[in-house]
Specification:
mainly alpha
Length: about 190
């Protein structure tokens, strides 16, 4: 069950984002927001280091790129702070090797997300969907290859969150969005 929490957290976060951006299934938006808040809170509560990561890196980065753009996303900001305060007595000593593993994982994930955004700047395309399917498969490889590391629980949790996010993205882009196709007419010169 613990593995499902980060998957649902990422999935519902992307579902709410899709509902707001693409205006799909809007009549269910409040339900999705409630479930998103629930699973995000459970995810942060299950691993205090995830809350700390969001406090130190994710929230400032989202503000920097102006991704916190609706009232709902702003209401989620206090959650990692509150949960960190509630759970900070569970913080344990992490050795340097463990910190390097966690930092390296985050850097790799952020680089892949940045590369994907630069390679596929359009909101919907077949190339973006294929890229996200590749990242989901890569997530399984990351979980398998890092299963013996001391920071395996942290890496697995964050990787499952990203996989849930990308899974919902692939499903929504495939089922609810018209994917622009490259037509053979696009290579023909346009008449004057």
């Amino acid at each position: 069950m613990e593995s499902l929490i980060p998957i649902f957290a990422g999935g519902f976060m992307k579902l709410v984002d899709e509902m707001e951006d693409a205006h799909i299934l809007e009549e269910y938006k409040e339900y999705a927001q409630t479930l998103c808040t629930l699973f995000i809170s459970l995810w942060f509560y299950s691993n205090v280091y995830i809350s700390l990561l969001f406090i130190l890196c994710v929230i400032p980065a989202c503000y920097f790129v102006k991704q916190i753009d609706t009232v709902y996303w702003k209401t989620l900001i206090p959650i990692p702070f509150i949960i960190f305060l509630l759970k900070m007595d569970t913080l344990e000593y992490i050795d340097t090797y463990d910190i390097v593993q966690r930092a390296l994982t985050m850097i790799i994930i952020f680089i892949l997300i940045f590369v994907e955004a630069k390679v596929n700047p359009e909101e919907t395309s077949l190339r973006k969907i294929v890229c996200r399917v590749f990242y989901i498969i890569l997530g399984f490889a990351v979980i398998y290859l890092t299963s013996e590391l001391s920071s395996a629980a942290f890496i697995q949790s964050f990787t499952l969150y990203v996989m849930g996010y990308y899974s919902v993205s692939v499903i929504s882009k495939t089922l609810f969005t018209q994917i622009p196709e490259a037509s053979s007419d696009s290579h023909q010169p346009k008449p004057i």
